[in-house]
């Protein structure tokens, strides 16, 4: 997650703590509103600090979610 926080700081000029809060809000929103497989894949990607295994898990979760019908709100 730090890599993403640092990118937000660099691109926006926000203070690091503000950027961390923003990233957390966005990630929580995505995990709440996307299929559970995608949320788990996001967590796996962040826990692997963006390494190849995390990227593969994220891609797998996205592909799995794409095959399922969207839930209605």
Describe this structure in words.
The model has no long low-confidence stretch (mean pLDDT 78). The longest helix has 18 residues, at 16-33. By secondary structure, the chain is an all-alpha fold. It has four helices and no strands. The chain has one domain. Helices cover 78% and strands 0% of the residues.
Number of strands: 0
- How many strands, which pairing sense, and closed or not: the largest β-sheet? none
Taken as a percent bin, the fraction of beta residues is: under 5%
H/E element string? Answer: HHHH
What's the shape?
A: elongated
What radius of gyration results from the CA coordinates?
13 Å
The helix tally amounts to 4
Overall pLDDT metric: 78
Structural class: mainly alpha
Low-confidence stretches: none
Helix content: over 70%
Distance between the termini: 29 Å
Structural topology:
Layout: H1 2-12, H2 16-33, H3 36-47, H4 52-67
Give a short summary of the structure.
It contains 4 helices and no strands. With 73 residues, it is mainly alpha-helical.
Structural key phrases:
4 helices
């Amino acid at each position: 997650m730090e890599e993403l926080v640092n990118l937000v700081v660099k691109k926006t000029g926000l203070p690091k703590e503000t950027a961390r809060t923003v990233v957390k809000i966005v990630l929580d929103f995505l995990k709440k509103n996307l299929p559970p497989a995608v949320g788990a894949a996001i967590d796996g990607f962040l826990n692997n600090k963006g390494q190849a295994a995390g990227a593969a898990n994220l891609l797998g979760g996205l592909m799995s979610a794409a095959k399922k019908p969207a839930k209605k709100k």
